[in-house]
Task: structure prediction
Amino acid sequence: MREFGYRRARDVSGALALLAADPDARYLGGGTNLVDLMKAGVERPAHLVDVRELPLDGIEITPEGGLRVGATVTNSDLAAHPEVRRRYPALAQAVLAGASGQLRNMATVGGNLLQRTRCGYFTDVSKPCNKRAPGSGCPAVTGEHHNHAILGATDHCVAVHPSDMGVALTAFDAVVTYETPDGPAESPLADFYLPVGDTPHRETALPPGALITGVVLPPAPVAARSRYRKVRERASYAFAIGSVAAALDVEDGVVRDVRLALGAVASRPWRARAAERVLVGGPADGAAFAAAADAELAAAKPLPDNGYKVTLMRNLMVAVLTELAEEATR
Amino acid sequence: MTTATTGPAAVKGAVGTAHTRVEGRDKVTGAARYAGEIPFADLAHGWLALSTVARGRVRSLDTDAVLGMPGVLAVLHHGNAPRVDTDYVGMLGIPPDPTAAVFQDDRVPHVGWPVALVVAETPEQAREAAEALVVTYDEEPHDTVLTADHPGAYPADGHMPAETEKGDLAASLAASAVVVDEEYTTPEEHHSMMEPHAATALWDGGRLEVIDSNQGATWVQTELAKMFSLDESAVRVRSEHIGGGFGSKGLRAHQVSAVMAATVLQRPVRVVMTRRQMFSLAGHRSPTVQRVRLGADADGRLRALEHRSLNQTSTVYEFVEPGAGVARVMYDADAHRTANHVVRLDVPSPTFMRAPGEAPGSFAIESALDELAERCGVDPIELRLRNEPEAGPVSGLPFSSRNLAACFREGARRFGWAERDPRPGIRREGRWLLGTGTAAASFGAGAGPSTALLTAEADGTFTVRISAADLGTGARTALTLVAADALEVTPERVRVRIGDSDFGPAMIAGGSMGTRSWAWAITEAARELRERLALGPAVPPEGITVRSDTTEALGALAQKERHSYGAQFAEVAVDTATGEVRVRRMLGIFAAGRIVNPLTARNQLVGGMIWGISMALHEEAVRDRATGGLYAPDLAGYHVATHADVGDVDADWVDDHDPDDPVGIKGVGEIGIVGAAAAVANAVRHATGVRHRSLPIRPDRVLSARADGSGTDA
Result:
């Protein structure tokens, strides 16, 4: 493990200045992923700039009726916040479906968005990986990949994004705000994660040195009836093999509005827009839900050992939408 | 506990009564020090550098660059390390695994083989330098894939004969009304104990001292003495507290490399394994491919039984995971054939892991019996009761005691088995399909020669000194209770000191034999001490010490089939839309001899059963074909059951008295896991109608089994 320097930033501009001073520096949030990667030799920063004490730990209602969540809000605080639980229950459920209580007490919203894939080739420096060492190859395509991507992947990388929180945020059209040396900027989460293409090591639209300051959730009445379901290989403390964040508004048996996002299927949280298009204005029944799921999964390109994910995601989407529809009729 | 242990010894009081761990307060307050945290002056730290290729030779190591790094004191490797001897037979009657004899040549037999030890002033410096060390290899093609028809497979003995055979298998199968012929597989599994391996070695006045975490202080002491050609009296190994062993904590690379470095540098050196290193240096349970053929009459009575088990081992050491051994104890048939085979691959050496042989073997045969029961239309418990043997199926020896039937009857009563509808796939609760399953368990009840020192102190207390190991099981507490009863005093007057090779040879904590072996030695010593105390009135200031040795007594014990037994019950819920399997409740009823401490015995049994859940549903180390190394070898990638995976689990026991055994203890360390995975798999079959013959029963496998439309097998 490389020796590294440590500085604590007092304000956002100070944090940017500290990072700009050293191209080999990294921001440190809760450290629940970065420190592991440092121990594994995947990350070898010369300096850590601790941003956890920055005044970005608030959750407030926006004038439009949405929510602004600061970047240093812990996962635990986010999941416990009454407005989050009331307005975006799937977001609270997603956060609570991740990690463990101890980790959620440390992990931050900003760090969660920037966490790296848990692909076992990425986290093992003795093996090739295009994301970690561009051009070295992707052994997962012909190797172990039963929990790898079925959507949006390329031969260069088939890793999946590990975040639960990000799936719910993607469903609710969250916008990431960040500070750059040139001033504040923002990006819808849907555009924040870059397509894999042939550059899997380039993961986000965040400019060099930029610091995430928070996420903004636009108002979404539909989100009040929402749900997150996660399937994993044990009952707790494991990353998803498939997850769904869904919100559904039904009136007289017809879908008025719907939000649907999928986790553990792609290099980023996957907004299921094809499925949403099929659903809006149509009947809220099992056949329609299945047709919507099929529409989304038509683009799936499973590998030899992860074809089950197509079945799993279809079943999950139908199950969660059915539950929400039943709830709406009660 | 509803079942009290009875028998002549129970009337004395301490044995059979729940007692919290005598060192419990020290452990929860942090006062108990583990091997990696005991301070030493002038301590240097070694860090192992491991190979990144699966087969080949070390061509070069760029040690110069590393020696110039801050704090680095030495780099040991095959070119400069002290030579050691591996041509000997150790305390357990087997040669050493050369995996522990590091840096003796340039050959690399697997990914994660130690190629160097970097020693520095701090662990951080040692780690940074070890990670910076550039090693080049002449790489050779590797083979790390175990297959049923691997051409390299051959029969191997291990600690039992490779093959047994009686009767005409083909004829008996042909004459059988019902035949089951299936293949079962279990994956590579790892011990994953909480405390990593850690050792500190130092020379003190011409004597080698090793502070370690191991399963037998005299075991490791004698191995190190032989390996380094030292007199046994010149080596002292201490191992006071151990955070789990499960078979993995014998002689390994960390002790040997620490001794080498302490010898070269003439200062104390500590070597600690990282979690990732443990996945290649601490041993593992080999994957198995097993074939079971059963032939029976229409009423389920066996006429033919064949169980063949194949496991992998390394190219440098033959380790047998004897999956086929369980049938030699459990079930008889006119035609009876069992065989354990191994194949040498470019992988780390496997080793003992909780219930070696029985854990994977019971999954196969207890699943096969469930299949047989279903095809015969006979209740699975009734099928087993109909096949209870009169004597050892292979040995012909009488059983010392065999209370399997009592376990099934008591278990069935408490689990509610009588209400069970045998039809699969018909119970639904919301999104969950429900099912129940059962399986039998057995594990050998042996003992190994041990010595004990027992001192009557002048203040009226007693001190036991025995080179026992408490892996976290409560062995120290159990021995306190045994000694108290043998001395006819209260446990508060007994102090038990363990984990020091200076106390003399003793059995290891392994094979479920530790407590029985040590209790025997303590009981013998107590008898002699009481005789001595009866002769004279006063205890001198230095006390009166007696020494016992059970070697002769053990040799005089009649040859019998001596085993613990158990009946495992599981209820599962399966969501076939997502592949999730949850174990709602488990019950294990055991016949395990005299129970010394109900509190810690129950911990052991429940712990084993929980591991069985983990084995059934979660645990699997995946080997990457291209590199020959493991994929994601850490506790994020290797899943063990979490609290949320463990439903209502309970263990209890029936009376199990063995009149001709002076101790009556059978051991509870391993049997809890035996049959547990089969009970879960049988319950999944009952819930869904799908038979899973490959562990673990992962969601993708449950889903794929449904998706392929067969609806019956996976």
Q: What stands out?
A: Residues 514-535 of chain B form the longest helix (22 residues). DSSP finds 17 helices and 27 strands in chain B. Residues 8-32+448-554 of chain B form a domain with the Aldehyde Oxidoreductase; domain 4 fold (CATH 3.30.365.10).
